[in-house]
Amino acid sequence: MAKQFLLSNLIAAITFCCVVLAFEPSPLQDFCVADPASPARVNGLACKDLKSVKADDFFFGGLHLAGNTTNAVGSKVTPVNVAQIPGLNTLGISLVRVDYAPWGINPPHTHPRATEILTVLEGTLQVGFVTSSPENRHITKVLKKGDAFVFPIGLVHYQHNVGYGNAVAIAALSSQNPGVIGMANAVFGSDPAIATDVLAKAFQVDESVAALMQSKF
Question: Which residues are involved in binding Mn(2+) (predicted)?
Answer without folding.
Answer: 109, 111, 116, 157
